[in-house]
Description:
The protein contains eight helices and four strands; from the N terminus they run ααβαααββαβαα. It has helices at residues 9-18, 20-41, 67-84, 87-97, 103-109, 130-151, 175-199, 207-214, and strands at 46-55, 110-114, 120-127, 157-162. It has a four-stranded antiparallel sheet with strand order 2-3-1-4. β2 and β3 form a beta hairpin.
Amino acid sequence: MDEEMDISLKEIFIILKERLWLIVSITVVAIIIAGIMSCYVIKPTYEAKSSVIVGKPQSTASESTQYNDVKMYQDLVETYSKIAQSELVAQGALDKLKGNLTLNQIKDSITITPQTGTQILIISAKSKSPEEALKVINAISTSFIESSKKVYPTGGDIQVMDKASMPTNPISPNKARNMATGFLIGLIISVGFVFIREYSDNTIKTESDVEKYIGLPILGVIPKMTAYIK
Length: 230
């Protein structure tokens, strides 16, 4: 049948109502799969954070800190963020850890975030183990301070402001978000499947289908008869 099919809101409502059980079933299965994946399949990821502050070297520090000095050290934060992400710092951390991690694994695990308008850098490290995340962040922070003094001795004074602590709760997977995503995906798939199944079925089911697809008027309807066996 090549005729164009006009879908009214009433037809859509009827189709959804008739196939509600199927929509609910597929959606529930999608939520359950998302929950199982979040709880038992996806390994949790932990993140440890440390913050460092870039300031005037103590040998030149005074009570009368000028605005230009603050602005200069704020601008230096970008430079130091690049140093923190360098291979030199990662190699220094690798030498301190003396573990099974590789240089690329260390570089991929850390994130450097300059705090806009401040002299502060946030250094974070992610790992599947909370202990390893803490070790990496401590090694990176120490290596960063040591390397900065070597490659940029005339820069600012770098101090750890907030030391990292052992992460207790994983940052991922987000179970609630994953299950909400599973709900949306399941709903979209189930509704789409219902309409594809409905409009790919060309069989005649009702009197209205005869008028719609064949174009013939309904002259009469034969009721269903129930046979009784005595």
